[in-house]
Amino acid sequence: MYTTDLSGKNAKKPEAAAAEDPVLLATFEARVANDEFIEPKDWMPEAYRRTLVRQISQHAHSEIVGMLPEGNWITRAPNLRRKAILLAKVQDEGGHGLYLYSAAETLGASREEMIDALHSGKAKYSTIFNYPTLTWADIGAIGWLVDGAAIMNQVPLQRTSYGPYARAMVRICKEESFHQRQGYELMMAMMAGTPEQKRMGQDAMNRWWHPSLMMFGPPDDKSPNTEQSIRWRIKRETNDELRQKFVDVTVPQAEAIGLSVPDPNLKWNDARGHYDFGALDWEEFYAVVRGEGAVAKERMTARVKAWEDGAWVREAARAYAEKRAAAKVAAE
Ligand SMILES: [Fe+2]
Ligand SMILES: [Fe+2]
User: Which residues neighbour ligand 2 (ion) by CB within 5 Å?
Assistant: First the structure.
């Protein structure tokens, strides 16, 4: 889902395709075609490594930045049950970020380079997190729609060709499915509530529907990396295929709880066996990708502050590791 280009310092220098050993390349491609996992010490084409570092680190950044819009609501959750659920969810997202940074590190990217690329604005994260969370109903809409779209993207990634990424996704998907369910359950409660709660639920739906559809990335004919990524089984389904699946699954869920989908062109198409839906405003998407808007600045300020506030923890951990290493040498 994180298809925007990342050209951070962590991206390795491109090597000409011609420089790749044709025998190694053929063996690699045969293994991938045979659905084998590629592991960190295996030979891989430089472009494969680069694409994965970009995709996995963007994914990791998105998990970490994704903690912020919902984190804002932990202190304002309406009751203890909702607070416990939201705390667990936001904590899960932090864990997802950590698995994914670790997976990217197996490809030679360093944590410091990745964090630096995020903080300096060179690396991108999912644009969805640059939208503000205005009401409590947004917490329901995010879990249901945003995590729901994330699952659509991430289930096929459990079979992505790079082993460490695929294995990280197995656990992440289990947790994402809890995120989606708690969001839908929250929306259900809102839609069974007072007229004011129903209005809030519909308002959240109106604001999050289109951004959620854009999470799948640009249309296939405007997504230059898709074909190569599918061939190398980094991606298993295209942006448009995944978007359609999401619409088909989500529309009946909305209708079941009395929410209307904010799209006048939405209509079941019997011949296709899918919903037809209206065109998306990609200009808005690219403006959000470019980081325009107050929320994007607020997100980065919060991330940089968290990183700086945590410096003492990293220093203490390093000092402790050095002390233990020294004690081990002394004992030998
Ligand atoms: Fe996550
Ligand atoms: Fe999630």
Answer: 147, 176, 179
